[in-house]
Amino acid sequence: MLADARSLAxxxxxxxxxVDGVRLLDPSTVETMTEVQTDKTRMHGLPPGLxxxxxxxxxxxxxxxxxxxxxxMMGPGSFGHPGSGGSIGFADPDARxxxxxxxxxxxxxPDDTRAANLIKAxxxxxx
Length: 127
Known about the structure:
The protein is an alpha+beta fold. Helices cover 25% and strands 14% of the residues.
């Protein structure tokens, strides 16, 4: 996908709430498509001998990452997907918000806090 942060956030927001009169998905569809299909299982395709600790595993639903220890997003109901180099887009049905962050400075480090700090700021604004 190629998008700017605002468009990404609007698209995700429209999956969990109405945006300018448009709601993309019915709540029952969101519930079905975000049901966790993996739960701390070994990631497919890891090279032999490389194991990821359970607290670094990610949860997948039908095409989306779910909130998990490595990527908590807004909360337990959040769903979305990271992009390359630190970008992320997601929706949170409980808060009824979408979030989009894209970067022009690619970063491969797993401890990159840029998006996480923005997510914390949004969470604190929502209360």
